[in-house]
Amino acid sequence: MNNNSRNFVYNKFLKNLYLVDINLNIQSFTVGVSGGQDSLVLLLLFTNFRSIHNNQLHLVNCNHGWRSNSISNSLRIFYLSKYTGATFNYFSHYSQLSNEKNARLWRYGRLLHLSNTLKYNGLVLGHTFTDKVETILYSFFRNNLDSISYNIILPYISLTNYLVLIRPLLTIKRSQTYWLCQLTYLPLWSDNTNYQFGISRNRIRNELIPYIKNIFNPNIEYQIDKFFYNLKMQKLYDDNKIINLLYKLVKKSHKIINLNIDLIKILSILDQYKLLKNFFMYFYKDIPTSKYIKHLIVLISKSKINAIKIIDENVYYL
């Protein structure tokens, strides 16, 4: 393999590993491998990395049973494990999983359990920059951006004191992994489930993003990522500000929780909404609907509510 050609992708991969551990002390990795281009590039990069650092590498393939040739695909990954000198585990679900979410939960559960059993330090997934952008768009269309964890931005997440989830391809685009596959003649396995348009993410991947890149902005993926990053940073700032305000505005004595309405009035409408939502979330058993909270804000502005108290888990407006 031409060293100059691979450096661009390999250096990004290495940089993400350095973010996990600057001394690269992680000695054992469990790697999820599907046989697609991203996971094969991940295996290639780890094989090169392992030749220098002599890490333990354990490949895992999870068969969802969605394709008639899935067993042949898994067998090829088994042969690759023998070729690279890695150990191998294969998991197959006893019945066909109903949807992508259930498949993902089952797959991650198997990987996590195996990593804990083997007491390996790193659990590695082949999520790319493109996968991250698709997740952001999918959640945006479902009006569910708030549900996306801040962790999606990070190439690593500490799961336990000794186990780290690592996504070393998170800053690498799928077009770049495809380029590396072509350059190194990796034996790609085409997954026809990636082209079934009944799956929403496939339409985002194969229709929407190419259309936007072609008609509006060829760098739309970076723009989406930048927008989401700024959104999450703003949310972190707002959440901390609201929590600090709650400490100042809420008075607790015995079983009575009192919210200072007079000080709420001087806040912006947006901050009033966020504060009331967090107040009910932290101190009351039920979170009111957005419509209900907006109605409270109107009543507060008209001085029809002068105090909000929670007594014995019951809310009172005075």
UniProtKB/TrEMBL annotation:
Its EC number is 6.3.4.19. Residues 29-207 form the tRNA(Ile)-lysidine/2-thiocytidine synthase N-terminal domain. One of its GO terms (molecular function) is tRNA(Ile)-lysidine synthase activity. Belongs to the tRNA(Ile)-lysidine synthase family. Keywords: ATP-binding, Ligase, Nucleotide-binding, Plastid, tRNA processing. It comes from Cyanidium sp. THAL103. Ligates lysine onto the cytidine present at position 34 of the AUA codon-specific tRNA(Ile) that contains the anticodon CAU, in an ATP-dependent manner. Cytidine is converted to lysidine, thus changing the amino acid specificity of the tRNA from methionine to isoleucine. The N-terminal region contains the highly conserved SGGXDS motif, predicted to be a P-loop motif involved in ATP binding. ATP binds at residues 34-39. It comes from the Eukaryota. The lineage of its organism: Eukaryota, Rhodophyta, Bangiophyceae, Cyanidiales, Cyanidiaceae. PANTHER family: TRNA(ILE)-LYSIDINE SYNTHASE-RELATED. It holds the Pfam family ATP_bind_3. This is tRNA(Ile)-lysidine synthase. InterPro entries: Rossmann-like_a/b/a_fold, TilS/TtcA_N, tRNA_Ile_lys_synt, tRNA_Ile_lys_synt_N. It is an enzyme of class 6 (ligase). GO terms for biological process: tRNA modification. The keyword Repeat does not apply. It catalyses: cytidine(34) in tRNA(Ile2) + L-lysine + ATP = lysidine(34) in tRNA(Ile2) + AMP + diphosphate + H(+).
